[in-house]
Amino acid sequence: MKVLVPVKRVIDYNVKARVKADQTGVDLANVKMSMNPFCEIAVEEAVRQKEKGVATEVVAVSIGPAQAQETLRTALAMGADRAILIQTDQDPEPLAVAKLLAAIIGEESPDVVIMGKQAIDGDNNATGQMLAALLDWPQATFANSVELSAGNAKVGREVDGGIQTIDVTLPAIITADLRLNEPRYASLPNILKAKKKPLDMKEAASLGVDTAPRLKVVKVTEPPKRGGGIKVENAADLVTNLKTAGVL
Amino acid sequence: MAVLVIADHDNASLKDSTHKTVTAALALSSDVDILVAGSGAKAVAEAAGKIAGVRKVLLAESDALGQGLAEAVTAVVVPLMSGYDAVLTPATSQGKNFSPRIAAKLDVAQISEIVEVVDASTFVRPIYAGNALETVQSSDAKKVITVRATAFKAAGEGGSASVESTGAGDGAPKTKFVDQQLVKSARPELAGAKIVVSGGRAMGSAEEFQRVIDPLADKLGAAIGASRAAVDAGYAPNDYQVGQTGKVVAPELYVAIGISGAIQHLAGMKDSKIIVAINKDADAPIFQVADFGLVSDYKTAVPELMDALAAAGK
Ligand SMILES: Cc1cc2nc3c(=O)[nH]c(=O)nc-3n(C[C@H](O)[C@H](O)[C@H](O)COP(=O)(O)OP(=O)(O)OC[C@H]3O[C@@H](n4cnc5c(N)ncnc54)[C@H](O)[C@@H]3O)c2cc1C
Ligand SMILES: Nc1ncnc2c1ncn2[C@@H]1O[C@H](COP(=O)(O)O)[C@@H](O)[C@H]1O
């Protein structure tokens, strides 16, 4: 079984994003970038499926600038077999990403795609569902458990109120939620080995897909700051303050 | 211009996030219809018809719709969209599941989790865990939007829209529903609660979480939330998670106990009216957003708070 894992290079989750003074976006110059945490979980899941003998090949794909090669090397160091970078200097919207991925899927014919539920920069939570729609494949989003077998996948999904379990026919799209697994750290020998694994590069434009943005960013602003609070002495003091504030 | 709102419900009752999404829809157009896709959901459709400002309610029913399967909901909505210019869905786990699928079938962008309608094609949405607000203008013929319900007031009651049946689509032929394990609780629902009490990693165990958080929540009539760390460790069920990738809440009062205040947690609660933090570390980042901070061990602070509330007649 062949597994395709789309991974995105994003601002590191420990870094607080700062809005640029000219309101055109978020300042990413000299900011630490990493693999999107949900994509790490997706890679981990794919690699575990390979270790279990269910998957036979894990292919990581990223759409982004040349630096996204580092993100792909991380995926390779975690255990992916090979990688594809679809190079572009724009930050394509989820619909464009889904179309580019659909084009790659046309070439690669994976049995299943495991990807993140959300990229922590745009917070869209859309690409997996869109890709499933474009391919007319079933989708199993927000996965918290995955059992893959020939022809189908049983997926436990995090939903409001608890867990829903569904069974989807392969090929299918699975998007990973936080509690699917705990991603491994790549070991030094594996990081070195990853340097020799194949990484193909393609220009996004060569895939013949319409990636024109549908949304124009008018401006990016800072959210309103909360007014300064106070420290209270004790619980009684807290209750008095809450009464005054009218919330009790 | 006509707008379709997809109702949030559990087949038995209509959720308040629907009322809030109607408010967002009415900012786009006065022609707002509601789709109730479910099974055995007639009462939900009737409740939707009572929301003020709603023109009519469409009811689509099948097993797959009742199970909320994305493929089934998409198959109902996409053909309906020939009659609408926009479709708005509350950004619940359900809505987030099917709405992007609808957008891609229509070959349009999804505008995720809007918090403000500037005009019929311009919207504000948080990005980077709420550390930035992006204003976007859509050039698509049809707008597919999810709505962060906490950012909008609920539309009132008093409508008398009729309910019409509509086609149930072709279901979800490649997806089989296996089962659903839902946590039943007599407490208010987290997403719409007026008061939320949340516990963090400091609780140390599920038993301690319940021992400390439950009675305080009961006393305040509050819903219960948790940090990711508490959920990951199994102290609280997963749908208690408040944050960037969990639930977004904006109650009148949010009480964070033993939660450090990571950006991902703040993203889910910093729009609460009053924030209280109880943490033994005076430098915990949660105090930067707290209106009232109590630097104390929760083991002494919470019992004292229970007593002080009792003394105040709570
Ligand atoms: C992709 C991604 C998504 C995430 N999404 C979310 C999300 O949606 N929601 C979320 O919450 N987190 C999320 N996180 C995790 C987040 O980064 C933090 O790790 C998490 O919020 C920490 O939880 P905590 O505050 O309970 O634990 P800690 O950070 O460990 O804080 C525990 C706090 O308890 C205090 N404490 C300890 N003992 C006591 C005591 N006896 N009395 C009083 N105080 C005490 C400590 O001083 C400390 O401040 C996400 C992370 C990633 C990478
Ligand atoms: N530029 C990209 N390259 C590769 N995968 C991506 C890209 N953008 C999004 N994805 C995938 O889609 C998931 C959801 O992203 P989003 O819909 O943007 O929140 C991510 O976790 C990735 O798996």
Write up what this structure looks like.
The complex is a heterodimer of chains A (248) and B (314). Chain A contains six helices and 13 strands. Chain A is of the alpha/beta class and 248 residues long. In chain A, the strands form two sheets. Chain A has a nine-stranded mixed beta sheet with strand order 9-8-7-10-6-1-4-5-11, with helices on both faces. Chain A has a two-stranded antiparallel sheet with strand order 2-3. The termini of chain A are far apart. Chain B is of the alpha/beta class. Chain B is 27% helix and 28% strand. Chain B is built from nine helices and 16 strands. In chain B, strand 6 and strand 7 form a beta hairpin. At the A-B interface, helix 3, helix 4, strand 7, strand 8 and strand 9 of A face helix 4, helix 5, strand 5, strand 7 and strand 8 of B. Strand 9 of chain A pairs antiparallel with strand 11 of chain B. Flavin-adenine dinucleotide (FAD) sits at the interface of chains B and A. Flavin-adenine dinucleotide sits at the interface of chains B and A. Chain B: Belongs to the ETF alpha-subunit/FixB family. Chain B: InterPro entries: DHS-like_NAD/FAD-binding_dom, ETF_a/b_N, ETF_a/FixB, ETF_alpha_N, ETF_asu_C, ETF_asu_C_CS, Rossmann-like_a/b/a_fold. Chain B: Pfam families: ETF (PF01012), ETF_alpha (PF00766). Chain B: This is Electron transfer flavoprotein subunit alpha/FixB family protein.
Counted beta strands of chain B: 16
- Rounded to the nearest angstrom, the radius of gyration of chain A is 21 Å
Radius of gyration of chain B: 21 Å
Number of helices of chain B: 9
- Contiguous low-pLDDT stretches of chain B (5 residues minimum) are none
Q: Identify the strand order in the major beta sheet of chain A.
A: 9-8-7-10-6-1-4-5-11
Q: What is the mean predicted local confidence, pLDDT of chain B? A: 97
What does the main sheet of chain B amount to? 7 strands, parallel
Order of helices and strands of chain B: EHEHEHHEHEEEEEEEEHEHEHEEH
Structural class of chain A: alpha/beta
Fraction of residues of chain A in helices? Answer: 25-40%
